[in-house]
Amino acid sequence: MRYSNDRPPVITLTTGPVNAYGEVLRGLGRSLLYDHDPAFQAFYERLVGKAQTAMRLSNKPVLMQGEPVLGLEAAAASLIARTDTVLNLASGVYGKGFASWARRHTPNVLEIEVPYNQAIDPQAVDEMLKAHPEISVVCVCHHETPSGTINPINQIGALVAAHGAYMIVDAVSSFGGMDTHPEDCRADLYVTGPSKCLGSPPGLTMLGVSQRAWDKMKANKDAPRASVLSIVDWENAWSRDKPFPFTPSIAELNGMDVALDLYLDEGPETVWARHALTARATRAGVKALGLSLWAACEAIASPTTTTIRTPDGIDEAKLRQAARERYGVVLSGGRGATQGKLTRIGHMGPTAQPIYAIAGLTAFAGALNALGHRVETGRGIDAAMAVIDTPPAD
After folding, report:
1. pLDDT tens track for 358-387
2. Which residues does residue 175 pair with via DSSP β-bridges, in sequence order?
């Protein structure tokens, strides 16, 4: 049997967009209320409150009307002034890329860069801050999705706060899938969205903003106003008594409302646990197949993405194509500097269930065998099942 590229796959195990929960898809079909209707304004106020609860914020988050790349670009434009000195932390493609946004707003950009299978060392950050007291903004990507690695943002955030600098955190593919929140890591701008681990379609940004960040953005004469990139314009949009800067993405907000209900009703700790279990099972299966993880060590391997180093002699694009054609399973490749070097199996939202570890491993192993790189599929499945069937520790 072959699955045509013209037909939808059987299972999508990518790192985003991810398949949305069925309940969320049904939520998208709710009536589209007029944004000035009192019923919608009351709904929006309640929705922002749910996001505040989920993000464990002491103030109201901002919901920007575009997928999180909008939030990331807006964070750079709104917070960074031309007199700032920015320290960019690059442990992967997305962290490295943020420097290009920072340089639009200040010529003073320093960087710590590590190999893209490693994580940022807080000690290196501490040393850089001490060597450059002029550093006023630090930017870091929590989960480097193209590498499947996690940076220690709580430790980094503590150092940045002690230095007196502001911190921008990209938590797009980590929030909702692991224990991470804006105030825990002392982030001033914490950018995430509902389209990864919360299992909702792309189209919105969830943004945690500290009070000191509000103050800095308002004082920043270079920050955008009356612009899709303006964060300040949305400061009070959460209130039913305040107008929206422009028409909000009503259908996506309906879906996000359901996604947040699912997350809070299941319980964040339970959601994080199934993400972590799915990833542990997948990593165990990968190693049992005789393959290598991309992450330099499992301590920095993400619970929302498993990255597998491409075996020598294998065309990674053909590997993913074989998985789709033969088994109807879609996987992700690398991005930028990791393109062609690794394959990514996503564990986000509805696919953060242990059974999908079995599906992903089976398709991946089968594709390798089809391309002539022989692995014993059963060994990988047995190893994954052993992890899944191990009772949780008390």
Report:
1. 999 999 999 999 999 999 999 999 999 999
2. 178
> Is the pTM value of this prediction over 0.90?
yes
Residue pLDDT, tens place only, 84-123: 999 999 999 999 999 999 999 999 999 999 999 999 999 9
Q: How confident is the model at residue 210 (pLDDT cuts 50, 70, 90)?
A: very high
Q: What is the identity of the amino acid at 272?
A: W
Intra-chain end-to-end CA distance of the chain, in Å: 45
Length of the chain: 394
How is 329-380 classified by DSSP, letter by letter? EE-EE--GGGTTTEEEEE--GGG-SHHHHHHHHHHHHHHHHHTT----HHHH
Q: Give the list of residues 6+ apart from residue 214 with CB closer than 8 angstroms, or none.
A: 232, 235
**Closest residue by Cα to residue 84 from 103, 112, 111:** 103
- The three-state secondary structure class of 255 is helix
- What is the distance between the alpha carbons of residues 176 and 186, in angstroms, rounded to a whole number? 18
CB 232 within 8 A of CB 223: yes
Domain annotation for the chain: domains and CATH numbers: 11-19+268-388 (3.90.1150.10), 31-264 (3.40.640.10)
Amino acid at 379: R
